[in-house]
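Researcher: I'm comparing several assemblies side by side, and this is the next one on my list. It has 773 residues spread over two chains. Same procedure as the others: predict the full complex and return the structure.
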Amino acid sequence: MVPLSYYLVLSGILFACGVAGFLIKRNIITIFMSIELMLNGVNLSFVAFAAQWHALSGQVFVFFVMVVAAAEAAVGLAIIIAVYRTRATLNVDKVDLLKL
Amino acid sequence: MTPNLHLWLIPILPLIGATINGLFGKRFSRQTVSGIAWTFSGAAFAMALWVVSQFSSLVLPYTEHLSPWIQAGAFHADFGFYLDQLTLIMLLIVTGVGLLIHIYSVGYMWEEGGFYRFFSYLNLFLFFMLTLILASNYLVMFIGWEGVGLASYLLIGFWFTKDSAASAGKKAFIVNRIGDFGFLLALFLIIQHFGSLDFTQVTSAVMPYGIEASGGFLTAIAILLMVGACGKSAQIPLYVWLPDAMEGPTPVSALIHAATMVTAGVYMVSRSHAIFERAPIALTIVAIIGTLTAFLAATIGITQTDIKKVLAYSTVSQLGYMFMACGVAAFSAGIFHLMTHAFFKGLLFLAAGSVIHSVGGEQDMRKMGGLRKKIPWTFWTMTAATFAIAGIPGLSGFFSKDEILWRAYQASWIYWLIGVITAFITSFYMFRLWFMTFFGEYRGEAESGHSHDAHASHGHGQGGIHESPKVMLIPLVILAFLSVFGGYVGVPGSLGGGNHFDQFLAPVFHSTIPSTSAEQATGVENAPPEQTTEGAEPNTGHSTELLFTGISVCAGFLGLFLAWLLYYKRPQLPQEIAVGLGGLYRGVVNKYYVDEIYAAVFVKPLIGISRGVFWHGVDQHVIDATLDDSAAGAREISGVVRRMQSGNLRSYAGWIAIGAAAVIVYMVWVGTR
């Protein structure tokens, strides 16, 4: 049995990678993927706790997170396509006017 | 059984007219506008006549309480109306002269712009004036008092595009404010001491008080009321607005600034006679103010060349007579003169308006002359008024002025002496006006000289001197009739009359000082002369009174003779006299520099303080600065905070990450402590 702390450390590393990627990268697609990474880091800690305490609610929560992430991917990618069509760029630093 | 008179209808009728004309008049034709104005002022006059017909069956004073207005603890003031002999006379004067002037105005104003506006204001004035005289307490009177001031302001500034008219309106309003302030203070004192503003209640509350030998609160109330009267009735030191008020249309000068509104002060003092009779010091002040005003205004009148200005100073002077009468507690004589003055001065202004109309807007008498043949109707009516005001025997002004002078003599010979001298001056300047306008050669430009000033629109195309239309002449004739015969209601006993006017007013004026306090009064040195009823008048007085009548008649004829000599026989003589008098003449012609002194003493410092302290100091450096500085502070802070809102997604994320990290560090720190 792998101890809980391993999962949690991995989860923290994944989350930190997501945050770092979010802050460092300029490409909007990469940033998007960083968000997914953070979500999955959190998911990992949820299931780890669920297994540790033998409680199903953690696993149910993970499904909710995945549903939201799927919806977010659909909307987010649509926005990205729209931005690319108007700006012809995916660099977030060039998309800072808060308007078209 | 006292019939219900519905007195409230009398003021309301002109208000309805004012409202209709004011709201919709712009779309009406001139005929409709004048029809509405006539209907409602005529209806008010008809109501007044109806009240006269019911008068004998009334229990006086008749009061009407419409509704409560202010209730605060024990104090309450109602909307109510009050009718007694004094009110009745004022009512007839205001509605009667008002109606005549409405009729006249249609002719006079026909060519002017803002026709509906004029009649709306005129009806509005009637509403407020009737409220003033019909009021049953001082507060309702104050509504009318302020309202006529407003109407006066609106009508003086009727040609508001003309700068002088607009500022004359403001001057009248502001000077009146000073007087109104005194009036208001008097009302506060009355409330404080009597707990009511109702005329009947105040009068009965005053009853127990004896005559105040030295100053007391009654004296203070009376003096403050007099300050109010000074403002409204153009007495020294607040008379300066009235001559400037001549900027308004001439019918307005006739109605408001000669016949009715300016007499409101006299009416108010007479209405408060119970207070004044108990305050001999205040009475003396009233008499002195009246006498001085009568004299000084008359002297200024000699030198004026604008026909309306002469009449304006004459009005101030005649009002001075009325206050002289009030000041010697001869209230009925004052009201008598008020009535005859309303007739002949109203007529003088209307006739002067007719003259101005006929010569195409010229107001300078030096450019008139020889108009006697050209405008005979105006000439004859004006003659009647001139003879009446000059005190030529048999005409209305003679009786009323004589009554005042006789009463004044009973109080002090000084009042009488100045009064007679003033009567002489009055006669002189009035006949000067008469001779300069109607006799000699026409001195104006041969053909239409009307290209300047507000009456320019009177230019009738063909120009030339022409008689005014009938609609203007009929009021002139009626007023001329009243000016000639109006005095016969009050022929004094010494001339074989019954002095009916005095007796008619007797219940109003003779009943307030009970005999006990009247006896006390005789013990006081400077008490007012006791109100002598007709029967009690000493028989020896008749011959003396006749002597004094003779003297004032002589003064009148002397004025006529002098004016004839100077302005008809030898027209170049006045110029030489003026040069000979030098500085004195310059002083008089410049109205004793009163306007300049007021400007230097009051207006300039006030403007200086307003500009330096209140505008640049308080307004700009305190009020504006507070606002501006707080706005600038907000802008600076936002300038700093704004940088966070860069629109850069990653910097937001960075802030969130930093915040989250800070929260975690805090939690860990709390957890491990």
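Model: For your comparison table: The beta strands of chain B are 62-72, 75-83.
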